[in-house]
Amino acid sequence: MQSQRESGNTSAPLLLWLNGGPGTSSLLGVLAETGPIRFDPDSLEPKLADTPAWTDDFDVLYIDQPVGTGFSYASNADGFATSQEEIVLDLFEAFQQFFQLFPEYYEKPLYLTGISYAGKYVPWLAVRVHDENQKPETRQYPLEGIVTINGFTDPTSAFSDTAQFLYQHGLVDRNGEAQIQEGAEILAQATELEDWLTAVLIIADFGNNETGLLNNLTGYTQMYNVADPYDQGLPPGTWEIYPEFVNQPKIRDAIHVGQTPFGGGYDVQASLLLDFPQSAKNKLVTILNNNYKVLLLNGAIDLVLGPRTCTSLLNSSNDWRDLDLYQQSKQEILKDETGSVVGYLTKVRNMWQAKVLGGTHYAPANVPGPVYSILKEFIAASSIGR
Questions:
Q1: pLDDT tens-digit profile of 11-68?
Q2: How far is the CA of 98 from the CAs of 11, 88, 131, 139, in angstroms?
Q3: Phi, psi dihedrals of residue 62, rounded to the nearest 5°
Q4: Which residues are known to be catalytic?
Q5: What DSSP designation does 383 have?
Q6: Pfam families, from UniProt (predicted)?
Q7: Which residues fall within 8 angstroms of residue 88, CB to CB, at 6 or more apart?
């Protein structure tokens, strides 16, 4: 989708947007998070978003991936990815084809962005693009930086202090805190041993909605909002209705998908089961150490992937050359145009860590204004050392 700020804007940066899941279609991003389109849940008619859209100022490329997600399909089970290595092979091929079809984008700044499980996809793809750019015979992709929102980049960091967080919010007692902390320690041990089956069972046991440890201890059926046990993160009915919306013949015609079935993502999740507990921290550190711009944004009330998980991730990134600077840094207060506090921002060279007040797991949807303001400021900022 091209920037709506000016017709034919030739200078707007290009943003690649990826939803997470795994198995969540990036059309959800178009229709409920960062795109300019919404839909009426009763009539299934499209309408313009009444909140800031990322396409207001930027060109945004939305890709359904891994293969089997949304309108991206595989003819049989062998086509489903089982690892980030396989995901990035497919994604980079699509990425290359896009630039071959639209070579004008070689001249525009490029940012790779995504939410939740895309906290793995984004750094993996960024490193792949970086590596490709080191080849002298290759036309350079104009990669400037990456953005992750509530990224599931490093599962061990995500769960390391969840028990304390839930206790401090009054959601569990000391006994419940001890149970959750025990699981986090087993997860860390299994991760160190690369015992991925044990690790994924711990994660599944914690958050399996109505049968998991979180539900048993707190009654929460969703993990998107620490203040609401039932919040699905998006407007009521979105998850159930948006597949029906995109499957309408007129919508399928408009996005040129022919008779391709719309995948619900379950096969994608199953194929990537053992990828769930694996970390992409080393890929993120590679991007940081090569002076790319990095924005790590978290909604302050995301129950599982809030700001504390990003702080744990960065503090455990021992190979990050600016770790000492980060640990000595001080955050600044973010205010909107009315002077109201909307969040906090820490800057260390090209790394920005943003915390958005009121932001749930789907912060671009529930606090779109502050998220978009931070994004614009980040992209407008000069890169240091590149």
A1: 789 999 999 999 999 999 999 999 999 988 888 898 999 999 999 999 999 999 999 9
A2: 18, 15, 18, 14
A3: -105, 125
A4: 116, 302, 361
A5: P
A6: Peptidase_S10
A7: 121, 124, 125, 128
The answer to whether 362 touches 298, Cβ cutoff 8 Å, is no
How many CB atoms sit inside 10 A of residue 349's CB? 16
Rounded to 5, what percent of the chain is helix, strand, coil? Answer: 45, 15, 40
Tokens of 294: 């990095």
The topology under which CATH files domain 14-153+230-380 is Rossmann fold (3.40.50)
* Residue reference for tokens 């200078």: 11
137 close to 297: Cβ distance less than 8 angstroms: no
Q: Which amino acid is at 62?
A: Y
Six token digits for residue 270: 């199953």
3-state SS, residue 373? helix
Tens of pLDDT, residue by residue over 161-188, are 999 999 999 999 999 999 999 999 999 9
Q: Are 326 and 351 in contact (CB under 8 A)?
A: yes
* Measured CA distances, 205 to 20, 187, 198, 231 (Å): 20, 11, 11, 20
Q: How far apart are CA 302 and CA 362, in angstroms?
A: 8
Which residues, 6 or more positions from 86, have their beta carbon under 8 angstroms from its beta carbon?
66
Which tokens sit at 231?
A: 């919040």
Rounded CA-CA distance 82/22 in Å is: 11
CB-based contacts of 347: which residues, under 8 Å, 6+ apart?
A: 329, 332, 353
Q: What's the pTM value of the predicted model, to 2 decimals? A: 0.95
Kindly list the domain boundaries of the chain, sorted by start residue.
14-153+230-380, 158-218
Tokens 């996809």 belong to which residue? 121
> Which structure tokens are listed for 148?
């992750």
Residue in the block written with tokens 């959800």: 28
Query: What are the backbone angles phi and psi of residue 128, rounded to the nearest 5°?
Result: -65, -40
